[in-house]
Specification:
globular, about 260 residues, 14 strands, mainly beta
């Protein structure tokens, strides 16, 4: 049975790029955050798992031609469960990326790499294994319309049933359209995701699949201040052992954004 539970999610992070010359730049990134769940209003099959996480890395970006840039990065991540049963895992690895401008309006960015995955769950260390990581982004834009299609492959923590590592595939398509009303944008998107247990073995494997869509309006008060109103729908199926739990969610969200740049 699906039930509501309060959740607090906070992420702090930053990115840095320092040019060395006209061709090369040094890059770095860092993020730190948590996701914590409160008590569910009705009984849950399997507890919700509060998690803290951290990622950091750095690398080199080389602009090898007016249309092409190459990126070589070293990546690290740390995940730790605060809930009963505990557990943690880390990844260390590297990625190689390519950014290509096909036309003035059309760009492509792709990355791929491998990570060393090591964890400890239920007080038992797991064997060290390799995990793939990848991303792909197509972006097209003109004066009135922007279109983005993306795919991602990464390892992520579970948030219910038991602490384990998931290998997650995600895909999304987003369209942004200028409206006849000045400074008002319309946004629509669809997304899918599939996650399967990876690395650690268990008699009761964990997996999930989800799909959803969103639509909304964004009003630009200035180049730094935005107000948005969005409707989101998602449908999820969580599997634990041989049992499936299916639920959907409808959310109407209002947000106000202030950028500092």
């Amino acid at each position: 049975q699906a039930g509501r539970a309060n959740v607090r999610n906070n992420v702090f992070g930053g990115n840095l790029a320092v040019p060395i010359n006209q061709t090369y730049s040094v890059t770095g990134n860092y993020s730190d955050g948590f996701m914590k769940f409160g008590s569910a209003q009705v009984g849950q099959v399997g507890s919700l798992l509060s998690t803290t996480f951290r990622s950091y890395g750095g690398g080199i970006l080389a602009k090898v031609s007016p249309q092409d840039s190459l990126m070589l990065n070293q990546t690290n991540s740390e995940f730790s469960y605060e809930s009963s049963g505990g557990g943690s895992f880390t990844t260390h690895g590297g990625t190689l990326g390519w950014m290509h401008t096909l036309t003035q309006n059309f760009t492509m960015t792709s990355t791929g790499g491998v990570q060393v995955l090591k964890g400890e769950f239920q007080s038992a260390a797991t064997s060290t294994t390799l995990a793939p990581t990848a991303s792909f982004l197509l972006s097209w834009r003109d004066r009135t319309t922007a279109l983005m299609a993306s795919y991602g492959l990464s390892v992520q923590p579970t948030f219910q049933f038991q602490s384990q590592v998931l290998l997650v595939h995600t895909g999304s398509l987003t369209v942004t359209q200028v409206t006849p009303i000045s400074q008002l944008l319309a946004v629509a998107s669809v997304s899918v995701g599939v996650g399967d247990q990876y690395g650690a073995s268990s008699r009761s494997p964990v997996s999930y699949s989800t799909y959803g869509g969103a639509a909304g309006l964004v009003y630009k008060f200035s180049s730094r201040t935005f107000m948005g109103l969005n409707y989101n729908y998602s449908n999820s199926e969580n599997k634990f052992g041989g049992t499936s739990f299916v639920f959907d969610r409808h959310v109407v969200q209002f947000n106000l954004t202030q950028a500092f740049y």
